[in-house]
Amino acid sequence: MSLTLRVLCVIGSALTFWIIMRRIKKASVRIDDVIVWIVFSLSLLVVAIFPNIPTFLAHLFGFQATSNFVFLAVITILLLREFTNTLKISKLNARLNELIEEQALQAKEEPHE
Amino acid sequence: MRILAIIPAYNEEDCIQGTVFNLKRACPEVDYLVINDGSTDATRSICERNGFSHVNLPVNSGLAVGFQTGMKYADRHGYDAAVQFDADGQHLPQYISQMADAMEREGASIVIASRVLANEGPTGARGVGSKLISALIRLTSGMHIADPTSGMRMYDRTIIKQFARGHDLTPEPDTIALLARKGAKVCEIPAHMQERQGGQSYFDFAHVAAYMSRICFSILFFQWFR
Hints:
The structure holds two protein chains of two kinds.
Chain A: H1 3-25, H2 31-49, H3 52-61, H4 66-109
Chain B: E1 3-9, H1 16-26, E2 31-36, H2 43-50, E3 54-56, H3 63-76, E4 81-84, H4 95-106, E5 110-114, H5 124-141, E6 153-156, H6 157-165, H7 173-181, E7 186-190, H8 205-220
Parallel strand pairs in B: 1-2, 1-4, 2-3, 5-7
Antiparallel strand pairs in B: 4-6, 5-6
């Protein structure tokens, strides 16, 4: 793993961490929702500090270069994240629709409230 | 047989009054419920001024949500059948009693007012889309529905319950295919329809593409997993 990639990992990690903490401070995101990003940020840091870990894993899975393994791992994590987001949005939509329907029906049953 | 006509209406100020008056005049025994889907025009005030039976969705939510609201109402008030009825005046109320007769006579759960059986099927691009959907339904379920895209459909109690309590059932042909495959009996009666009596159709190209892809994917693919 090249030094450049390691430095970029540290910068990426620090940036992610800083952005999340700023959001927490401004109370614009729930802690539950950002834990996964903190873990992401920390693992970038780990990869940068201990390049032996990704190198070992890359060899284990037969990658030619450690950087390829790191890229693929990051892409996979982001895709999974995107998929869980789709599920979450779909569920939120269903709940919102449910609320809209119930509100409309209730307003009809109790017109003076 | 207690019947509820569900009339979803989004910005239908040009037609809603005429549609409801015609319905009341032609079928005084049929109850109706206008679903005002967050209209930004005078639809709501027209309903209030005329004392129409209606509910107001707080935000615009689309046909599926509006229709499910109507089905919940029908379910909770114990209606025997619910009919999907367009606000734009395309559907003629005099067919409602014929649909109800067909439902009882044939023991059907879903009755479709079919333009095709009246030799008035949709033409041009709409006709192609409709025939494609019809072919897909026949291919996957072996059942022949001549006019799957007709928006005037009557549903019995069992189907009302499924719409009211189910998840992601849209009042569209793919749902008809799904319900039919699960054992609901579908029949069609010939029916004439009118041109929309004013206002604007939301069927522009983007909507048509989204509609067709949802219906086709749903019939070909998703329904086997539901």
